[in-house]
Write a structure and sequence with these properties.
globular, 244 residues, Beta-carbonic Anhydrase, Chain A, binds zinc ion, alpha/beta, six-stranded mixed sheet, single chain
Length: 244
Amino acid sequence: MSNRDKQPQAPAPQASGKAESANEALQHIVDGFKHFRHDVFPQQEELFKKLATAQHPRAMFITCADSRIVPELITQSSPGDLFVTRNVGNVVPPYGPMNGGVSTAIEYAVMALGVQHIIICGHSDCGAMRAVLNPHTLEKMPTVKAWLRHAEVAKTVVEGNCSCSGEHETMHVLTEENVIAQLTHLRTHPSVASKLASGQLFIHGWVYDIETSEIRAYDAAQDRFLPLDGDHTIPTATPPRARY
Ligand code: ZN
């Protein structure tokens, strides 16, 4: 059975934009769980039995908390395949004296789980990127404002170098620059730096387009983003050769 066949038939999503009451929203979620438990789970019982005591994910996937990005859906992955970490703006804080949840997850994925790939995935229409461009909108959100300082470098690069015309193009370029900035931060983590140096870890920077489903991936060799499904080798942000 292919992964595609195994995709759960969830109840219709609430995509109409019509406001739900709090009760309706919760009921929808619980109904979804019941559907999963009674209809979907029994079809994949073998898989869940295998997963009950161990995980061997194919990759760590760091992406935005945005509800429109579903890593398992866009990569057609099954439970156990992706070690996912999500936060506002798909940020990776650089390694430092105060390390939080993202840094912890990276170290665990690399050292304990031995993942061979880390993918940082930004996306179109990202509210975090829009906030980086319009910091006055964050006056009542001091925690978000502080967190997005990790994306400040991308904004500075764009402002200093891009002759972008209009907010749409600026958003697009900023989203790509933010992924590049977070890849740079990722390399400051000792566990990542060590496995990159020995050629045991590969890193990737993607931008997913919600409207078209296109993914563009950063190619370190060409220093630009290319279609992930283009007619070329898979673009990667990994340095060209291992030192050890
Ligand atoms: Zn976002």
